[in-house]
Amino acid sequence: MINREAARQADKCRFCWMCRHLCPVQLVTGKEINTPRAKGLLISMNERGAEFDADMAEAMYECLLCDACTDNCATGYNPPLFIREARTEAAVLGLLPEGVEAVLNNIEKSGNIYGAEKPSYAADKGKEVLVYVGEAAAVRAPEMVRAYLSLLDKAGVAYTVLENEPASGVMLGDLIGYTEEVREQAAACAAALNGAGAGKIVALDSYDAQLMAEKYPEWGLELAAPVVTATSFIASLLADGKLQPEKTEAGPAAFHDDDRLARFFKEYDAGRAIAKACGYEKVEMYNHLALAKSAGTSVAKAFMPEIVKKVSAGRWDDLMRTEAKTMLVASPEAYDCLRETIPEGYELVDLFEALDRLVK
Ligand code: SF4
Ligand code: SF4
Q: To test the ligand 1 pocket, which listed residue (77, 81, 263) has its Cβ within 8 A of the most ligand atoms?
C-alpha cells in the first residue's frame, strides 16, 4: 500500500499527457506504459482494487527517476514520488524484476551495485574537505577520481578520502524506495562523514550529493559540514585563481547537465565554467539546463542495460543536432552511461581529466 500523498499524486497525474515528450525512457522505448501518467494510472488502478502484479512492478522500474517530468509539471506533481513508493511495494510483494534482484544481491555481497570490491582512494591530507567518491565513480570512473584528487593537490586543498567509504543509500533508495534499510545505510554514512571532522563534504557524484543534501536532513541525519557538488567546488577554485589552466582552444563542445545537478541543485554555471577554462567553445544541446534529457544512471544501467543504452544513444542524438562533436561531462554516472554509445567521429570528455591536463 503506497502512502496517501503518493496515491493522491498518482491519481491526479493519470489523465495528463503534458510532460510525455520529456520522458527519456518513453522517447526511446515508444511504450505508452513508460509515460509518467501511465505509471500514475497503474497505481490508481491498484488503489481501486486491481492486483499489483509482476507486469506492474516491471513498469515501475522502466524509469530513471530523472525528474524531468516533475520539473516540468505545471501542477507541481512528482511522478518519482509514487514510482519509488511502487518499487517499495514491488519489493514487499516479492515482485522485483530479475535484473533488480541481481543488483540487490550484488549490494548484499559487496556493499555496492557492481558486486565488486570498491577500490579505495584513501587520503589523509587534511580536514579542509572530505571528498566522498561514491561507488559509481570508484568502480566505473577511476580516471575521473584520480583527476579530481590531482586537481585538489594542485590547488593546495587539504583533503581526506575515507578508507572504507560507506554507501550513501542513493543506489538502494532508487532500487527499493526510501525504506528503513535505506535510512540505516544513510545513518551509517552520515556517522562516517561526521567522524572525519572536515569543513566541507565534496561529493563527486551529484546523486550522492542530492541524497545527502535533501534526504539526510528529512531523516534527522544532520551532517556537521555542508555538502557541495564536485563541479561547484572546482569552479570556485578556478574563480579564486587556485587552479590556473594553460590557455588553449579546444573547439565547440556541449556540456551535459546530469539529472540531479540540473533538477535538484539547479546548478548550470559551474560545469560550463570548467568547460570554458578548458578552452571549449560553448554549444548547447536542444534539451539542456533544467530540461536536460537524462543520459541514464548507473543503477538503472545495472538492472536494465539495454534501455539505458538506448537512452544514452538518445543523448548523443541531441549532440548530433549541433555543430559540436564533443560531449562534456562532469558526472561519473553520465560518463559511465554515455561512453557505451559514442558515435563514430564523436568524443566524450571528462572535464576533470581535461582540466587536470591543463593545470601544471
Ligand atoms: S507530472 Fe505533471 S505534467 Fe507530467 S503527467 Fe503528471 S500531472 Fe501531467
Ligand atoms: S522520472 Fe524521468 S524517466 Fe521517470 S517518468 Fe519521469 S521523465 Fe520519465
A: 77
